[in-house]
Amino acid sequence: MIRMFLQSMILGACPVSLLAATLGLTVNHTFSGKPLAIGQAKYSLASGEHVVFSRLSYLLSGFELQREDGSWLVLDNQVAWMDAAIGRSKVQFASVPEGRYRSLRFSVGLPMVDNVREVTAYEPNHPLNPQLNKLHWSWQTGYIFLAVEGHLEGDTGFSYHLARSPNRTWIHLGFDVDARGRKMLVTDFDLATLFNAPQIVSIGKDGVSTHSREGDPLAAKLKQNLPGAFQLRQVIDLSPLSLVKSGKPPLYLPEKHTPVSLYYNRRLPMPALPEDNPLTRERIALGKALFHDARLSANNEMSCATCHLREHAFTDPRKFSVGIDGSVGVRNAMPLYNLAWKKHFFWDGRVETLRKQALMPIEDPIEMADDLEMVVEDLSADASMTAAFAQAFSPPEITAEKIGLAIEQFLISQVSYRSRYDRAIEGRVQLTEQEQRGFHLFVTEHEPRSGQFGADCFHCHGGTLFTDHQFHNNGLVPGMDEGRSRVTGKKEDRFKFVTPSLRNVAVTAPYMHDGQFATLEEVIEHYDRGLHRSPSLDPNLAKREALNLSAKDKAALVAFLKTLTDEYFLRSEP
Predict the structure, then answer these.
(1) What per-residue string of b and e applies to 136-169 under the rule 16 or more CB within 10 Å gives b?
(2) CA nearest 305: which of 291, 322, 320?
(3) Is the dihedral of CA 163, 166, 172, 178 positive or negative?
(4) What gap in Å lies between CA 257 and CA 259, rounded to an integer?
(5) Cis status, amide bond into 198, omega within 30 of 0
(6) Residue 291, SS3 per DSSP
(7) pLDDT in tens, 140-164
(8) What is d(CA 404, CA 389) in angstroms, rounded to the nearest whole number?
(9) How many Å is the Cα radius of gyration of the chain?
(10) Measured between alpha carbons, how far is 336 from 396 in angstroms, rounded to an integer?
(11) Residue 428 burial class via C-beta count within 10 angstroms: exposed 0-12, middle 13-18, buried 19 and up
(12) What is the spatial distance between Cα 441 and Cα 559, in angstroms, rounded to a whole number?
């Protein structure tokens, strides 16, 4: 049941025929023809409601070009993921035969074969990799075809997810293009049309959420409005653009080294491992030694492992960790596992690589308070350490950069995937009735309109990693720590922190970025009826009032969460 995946391969360019053109599609995300400002601008709907959009993300497939004679050219294996919040708006079709074309058609959504296909083998950058697009339902079959989320005035959230095969929607764009060289089709996807025509969508009347269950009139309205929301604006003739993509060459890789593959559960998505730091046995071993080496601190008494204990899934059971001089931190130490799937580190995501994250606590004055130059000097005086660096790097000289690369590899190698929940999914053990009830609550929407009364955990903690790795305001009472906005400078990111994985959550107390909850019961009570409403509150929380879970349901949730503990990982050799 366990697969061994090799390092990501660097893809070369595909040769383009001399008689082929490159055609591209750019989608401008708009509202009434003006650029859509995700999380910033307030928009007026035909219903009289005023909204701020926080998410517009969707999948396109089935691209076909219509020739002059009316026949259709199928652009094989073309699928695209678009996301307005991150400016993802382009898809390119290489090797299109030269000639005149008069229209393009494609669908919002996927054909059945792709919607039900096993997703875990997709390359990290493939648009259908669920870790990339965050549009897969994981426990339910299939993808979300279109996700539109946001807030009404008064901080009520809405979450519209158009999905399921009957709701796959075809878009048709007419034009007259002579496909030679490189052309770009520019179209608008206008949310004003999606909400206003031909059917007026009222969030207050039609509902604050939909998951497109059969017979849902709200999903039917969205599907009816969707084709008209796409409008072709212009065709741009661009200069030739190279299709060559080159990867990053390995850094300091010695001639003799032992490649290592990353082992993980077959249901986890494929991670994007660093191309310039391919896993080797020598670097992982060196990173492990450095992680436990107290010489990385100014008083030679504190290592990374001091505040990241394996028996607690590499986190700190204290509310805040204590530095070498007794200084107390301001955030709870995060657990360190399954980091190969993360793209941002620390609670506020201020660092984008593990190698940088590993070095920052060393020089932080309230943590290890050391100087990297002094650390390099101390390690260089140790013959065993210089020998270990010589095995892992060429040239062998110890540097701060190499310290970061080695610790990065050790942290990437810490993968947790063998909990009792995993064994149950594999059919090796059986969850109790209470645990099964907790799982059902966990993955079920809280949507009274459609008779759904779940705990609604899966929006942020969905998938086999039990995290979306995104930043959310989860309704804590605001304090001095404004979280993600300190990094981005955007007010819409105030009080947003990254979603931690719920794997091993039973041993990672205390909870939240500030460690304010000591037990899982307190966490569940917060989500049940303790949410603080504010403009940046996540839409999937803001769309509802209290869950009103029974004591029995709360106990079932706790029971399920405890099945996520990976005893094998916690007992592994330090």
Answers:
(1) bbbeeebbbbbbbbbbbeebbbbbbbbbbeebbb
(2) 291
(3) positive
(4) 6
(5) yes
(6) helix
(7) 789 999 999 999 987 899 999 999 9
(8) 12
(9) 25
(10) 28
(11) exposed
(12) 11
Residues 6 or more apart whose Cβ sits within 8 Å of residue 572: 310
Identity at 177, one-letter amino acid code: V
CA distance 248 to 82: 25
**How would you write 14-77 as a 3-class SS string?**
CCCCCCEEEEEEEEEEEECCEECCCCCCCEECCCCCEEEEEEEEEEEEEEEEEECCCCEEECCC
Distance CA 127, CA 62 (A): 14
DSSP assignment of 97-155, as one string? ESEEEEEEEEEES--HHHHSS--TTS-TTSTT-HHHH--B-TTSSSBEEEEEEEEETTS
CA distance 519 to 474: 17
Please list, residue by residue across 522-534, b when 16 or more beta carbons sit within 10 angstroms of its beta carbon and e when fewer do: ebbebbbeebeeb
At CA 17, angle to CA 108 and CA 105, rounded to 5?
20
Tokens of 46: 């035909």
CA distance 472 to 290: 33
- The answer to whether residue 4 scores a pLDDT higher than 60 is no
The one-character DSSP state at 11 is P
Residues 334 and 351: beta-carbon distance below 8 Å: no
DSSP 8-state secondary structure symbol assigned to residue 296: G
Q: List, for residues 406-460, the tens digit of each pLDDT value.
A: 999 999 999 999 999 999 988 899 999 999 999 999 999 898 988 889 999 999 9
446-455 per-residue burial string, b: 16 or more CB within 10 A, e: under 16: bbeeeeebbb
DSSP 8-state secondary structure symbol assigned to residue 435: H
Does the pTM of the predicted model rise above 0.85?
no
Write out the two tokens for 156: 């009520």
DSSP structure string for 299-323? TS---HHHHSBGGGTSB-SSSS-B-
The helix (run of H) or strand (run of E) holding residue 508 is: none
Contact 114, 24 (CB under 8 A): no
Q: What is the 3-state secondary structure (H, E, C) of 133-148?
A: HCCECCCCCCEEEEEE
**pLDDT for res 573:** 67
Residue-wise DSSP of 200-240: PP-HHHH-SEE---TT-HHHHHHHHHHHHHEEEEEEEEE--
- Residue-wise pLDDT for 103-139, tens only, equals 999 999 999 999 999 888 899 999 999 999 999 987 7
Q: Which helix (H) or strand (E) holds 179?
A: strand 169-179
Query: Is residue 103 classed exposed, middle or buried when 0-12, 13-18 and 19+ CB atoms within 10 A define those classes?
Result: middle
Residue 293's pLDDT band, with cuts at 50, 70 and 90, is very high
Length of the chain: 574
**Residue 131: left (phi > 0), alpha (psi -120 to 50), or beta?**
alpha
